[in-house]
Amino acid sequence: MIDVMTNNLKHLISAFQAQGITDFVLSPGSRNTPLALLLAERQVRLTVAVDERSAAFCALGIAKRSHTPVALVATSGTATANYWPAIAEAQSFHVHLVVLTTDRPQELQSIGAPQTIPQRGMYTTNVKQSLEINVQDPEPDVTEFIDYQVQQLVHQSQLAPTGPVHLNLPFRKPLLPTLGTAWPQVHPQEFGHIVGRLDSNSLTRLVQRLHGRKLLFFLGPNDHYDASTLLDRLAQQLHAPIIADVLSSLRGNLSATPTPNLQEFPKELWPEVVLRFGGTPVNATLLPWLKQHGIPVIQIGANYLGKDHSRWAHTSYNLTAADFCRQLLKTTLHGNPAYRTQWHQALATKVSSTPTELNEATLPQLLATDATLQQLFLANSLTVRYFDQVFRPQTPVRVQGNRGANGIDGTISSATGMALNQVPTWLVTGDLAFFHDLNGLQLARTTHVNLTIIVVNNDGGGIFSLLPQATAPHFETLFGTPQHLNLAAAAELVGADYHLVTQLSDFQAHVRESWTGLRLLEIRTTRTQLPPRKDD
Amino acid sequence: MIDVMTNNLKHLISAFQAQGITDFVLSPGSRNTPLALLLAERQVRLTVAVDERSAAFCALGIAKRSHTPVALVATSGTATANYWPAIAEAQSFHVHLVVLTTDRPQELQSIGAPQTIPQRGMYTTNVKQSLEINVQDPEPDVTEFIDYQVQQLVHQSQLAPTGPVHLNLPFRKPLLPTLGTAWPQVHPQEFGHIVGRLDSNSLTRLVQRLHGRKLLFFLGPNDHYDASTLLDRLAQQLHAPIIADVLSSLRGNLSATPTPNLQEFPKELWPEVVLRFGGTPVNATLLPWLKQHGIPVIQIGANYLGKDHSRWAHTSYNLTAADFCRQLLKTTLHGNPAYRTQWHQALATKVSSTPTELNEATLPQLLATDATLQQLFLANSLTVRYFDQVFRPQTPVRVQGNRGANGIDGTISSATGMALNQVPTWLVTGDLAFFHDLNGLQLARTTHVNLTIIVVNNDGGGIFSLLPQATAPHFETLFGTPQHLNLAAAAELVGADYHLVTQLSDFQAHVRESWTGLRLLEIRTTRTQLPPRKDD
């Protein structure tokens, strides 16, 4: 039976090998015993150097000559500080070193344990990235995280500007690994969890990989797709249907749809490979579903290298969507010729009817019918999800939201920033996000933007009713947090128009109305109306 | 008369404008008074937002919509901490914000002054880069640094992964700027101090800029030029002579020469534009000379963006040397047709004669004649400069040195790392650098590398005799630091061959000798033999 530490360290060493590391320079000690023994068992090219300063400069010399990242392995304490001069040289001259420091576990930190100094992030800005992993954590996702993240770390050292990276590894005793057990399979360099350029060799391999398959485009959140026309042309050439996140702003431009419920699709309509652009989807089920069914995901975009929290992206390409499309459009690559048509036929059977009442769920469809809609800002956390599910405008609409860190703060202020270009702008928000940025109303007033704020007021945090604490004691006090907001008074405070909208026809009239300045439209709902969803 | 602060802040605002920033979001306060007044005078697009949290989210909204960096301006203290939520969102969603925080001066830090919190680097890894500039420093180079570095900072926010950057600005009272004075000229986006991609528009402008001119290539230190053939082809097409740093390893491959003494060249042989590749030159006079004579420098290489300590590079291109060459080779661009020939004719008159004695200055030429030489490592700090001046091998030689941070530490260990590929390797070092890494000898011994170490022993630090402290009291104790090394004993310690070489013929015999393992060749010199040079 293999222990957790041995298993995870074998994954770690294998991830290094998958990223092309062949040279390891080891300075023996007690704390790095498990790595020393496993590296020896793996028969890597191992250089032993007792003096860590010497070891680090030696690794530097190897890396300078071989142009391949070299890994350093130190025990804990002052040993690690001896690496610093060579790390500083590597950072200045752009040499890729991968610095592994082993450490005492958390319960021995800062309390006078021997050979224990603050090692986490110790090289500060002299390294490009610093990471700590507890390899003795028995959670299986940690193993998968090692497979993915350790490869990303090595790749980070190779991205311009190239330079050193640091991985701190706390080990708890006993330090002897289980020797003689099986090693995990090393992912191949292409279509492992690796990022890279799309050069002519990898382009050839990519074309071979995709040719004739059922290909699906997923366009994630991105404030500025520089390639909407190219994406459309490429999708057509590849016979690939397109799913667009509501925050891609591309639903009104392309033949793109919201994310359907793929579980309801017959298996013959499942994609064989997904090309993913943009950031983390608003839809929380798509990436886990793809992973669960083993459908490979290829990620494109320099901003998104290594940013796949499902730890499933098979390859990430370090180039813009436009450059990726241009390169593939030059090839004769095409996907399964029937797939796009079949996909759209399946979707056509699921078209939703025109709403007959006004509530949080129908709001996206009601706004989508407004042909004059140009700019829309969506608050977290339930609002943006409702819109992601069904909002499908007939004309291009610029849609934005603060969906990087997903906070409920600053929503009105960000929408005001969006509206400073004098284009009439709509903000849809819940009452808690509205309250959190009440001061933003004053900014909207003093900047004279044309902003309509729809507050879907369910008097508290709707998302919590969908989370496990929904049945917890003190729910209203701790999670519901009803604020009993007087929205009319808030509007009065900043001299804004205010309307409580209860009828569908009234809402439609407000949508059609030509207006300037600041408006508040309040739609009251109750939290229990919300449909159950499993979400983050 | 314009005061230092006003002048430097005008340069700062102009640098922002040169990099395309048009939107500023200001939260008024006392400490940021000078920026507030100057921004108003400059008539930038200024949004005033009292609540800093609101201000930062508003800037986020503007940047998300406009895809252009937006600048934030805060007063000191907790005001700056209110920016943090929006900065975190910007970092996660890849939005380019430029965060300006104003601060109390250094003499008011950490001693209980009001509205004073630790602001330098306060946003930690939530920003891509953090910088502090004292704009009240009267040194003229600081103004030039602002012109250059502020533009680099803004550009950094736009490089993938895009994100926020931070500039902390301590101001000392009085805080009122001199209004109504002249503004500095804003550099144009191209051929200002700016970095960028070489897209088809900028390629066209570059070709127009270079066509028919006297063009010179400078190939700086780089462990791995991926484009030596392409560089050679491009230089020929452009009729451009090539200067190669000794640490480019390209002197034996290309028609490249060491850096000549350009001061001795007639003015008609001066280049009109220099294309600079690789890192900071070993030669310390070239970049200042180009700047002094107003000769534009264009820098190429993703690793070297914004890395020009002469603050003179007019444009930096974010792509590899190979990609740059490929793009230019597709054009019909050529330089002044006669220039390359004239340059080489001028150089031909300066060919040095074959050395007749053995010393530090003749060593590079003597080693260059060794046709079997494959790998050479050069120590800091005088050794690498001598070699840079005259080393010109007849065949390709891989030449390396630790020339990022230029330390004298770890030299033997790095040379050992270089030699681990079993190729016979030469290390040339002074006695101080040799002593500093004495432990590296043991590493060379235990790894069984084939390494010849030439120690040019002048019993102390030769460089200091060339610096201003050469005539200072206690010179030998504080700077010369003679170690009276017994190199024979050092060799004995690690079982290495040792030879004290005094005769040219003996040295040549050692060079010709076939050998394995570790050798020490000691050449004794005196420090006063060194020619005077002005260097760092």
UniProtKB/TrEMBL annotation, chains A, B:
GO terms for molecular function: 2-succinyl-5-enolpyruvyl-6-hydroxy-3-cyclohexene-1-carboxylic-acid synthase activity. Binds 1 thiamine pyrophosphate per subunit. It holds the Pfam family TPP_enzyme_N. Coiled coil: none annotated. Its cofactor is Mg(2+); Mn(2+); thiamine diphosphate. Keywords: Magnesium, Manganese, Menaquinone biosynthesis, Metal-binding, Thiamine pyrophosphate, Transferase. Gene3D superfamilies: 3.40.50.970, TPP-binding domain. Residues 11-117 form the Thiamine pyrophosphate enzyme N-terminal TPP-binding domain. The keyword Metal-binding applies. Pathway: Quinol/quinone metabolism; menaquinone biosynthesis; Quinol/quinone metabolism; 1,4-dihydroxy-2-naphthoate biosynthesis; 1,4-dihydroxy-2-naphthoate from chorismate: step 2/7. It is an enzyme of class 2 (transferase). Its EC number is 2.2.1.9. It catalyses: isochorismate + 2-oxoglutarate + H(+) = 5-enolpyruvoyl-6-hydroxy-2-succinyl-cyclohex-3-ene-1-carboxylate + CO2. Residues 387-513 form the Thiamine pyrophosphate enzyme TPP-binding domain. Belongs to the TPP enzyme family. MenD subfamily. Catalyzes the thiamine diphosphate-dependent decarboxylation of 2-oxoglutarate and the subsequent addition of the resulting succinic semialdehyde-thiamine pyrophosphate anion to isochorismate to yield 2-succinyl-5-enolpyruvyl-6-hydroxy-3-cyclohexene-1-carboxylate (SEPHCHC). Homodimer. This is 2-succinyl-5-enolpyruvyl-6-hydroxy-3-cyclohexene-1-carboxylate synthase.
